Amino acid sequence: xxxxxxxxxxxxxxxxxxxxxxxxxxxxxxxxxxxxxxxxxxxxxxxxxxxxxxxxxxxxxxxxxxxxxxxxxxxxxxxxxxxxxxxxxxxxxxxxxxxxxxxxxxxxxxxxxxxxxxxxxxxxxxxxxxxxxxxxxxxxxxxxxxxxxxxxxxxxxxxxxxxxxxxxxxxxxxxxxxxxxxxxxx
Length: 186
Fold this sequence. Notes:
Elements: H1 3-19, E1 28-31, E2 38-40, E3 43-53, H2 58-61, E4 78-89, E5 95-96, E6 100-104, E7 110-111, E8 128-129, E9 134-135, E10 150-157, E11 167-171, E12 179-183
Parallel strand pairs: 1-12
Antiparallel strand pairs: 2-3, 3-4, 4-9, 4-10, 5-8, 6-7, 6-11, 11-12
């Protein structure tokens, strides 16, 4: 057997071995930047923007409404960091939107969002997305901002920004074992 057919035979054999693995493959979808559409289940997600928020700036104050009292204070080495997300259910069935989020830095440190109180009209809330719908809904306060996305608010240590790229990972309790991620443009 010549070298080329041998390589092809080995490649085909290895594909067969890979196919013999788990009976239910774990679907992982990853986006290289915030502009990418990433799929989780039948729903597509897009990070509209991510950035540090400044409580002293008028444009950021409304985003910081509804922080629970225990989480309101920032240490000298902490920042508020927002991730604005949109979701699109392109399927023909209702689907629950993602409900588990975290930011992971290159050291492996994980940061979860703060659960904002209902008074924050821009906060992301997991919901049942009807077929063909999008979140936030057109005409809602979150959809009408310049970011056109719903806010997930994080309290990050300043040094997390030195350990980039930051990965924004999300999943849904309704989709056991599936996780998707987007690299944040920080």
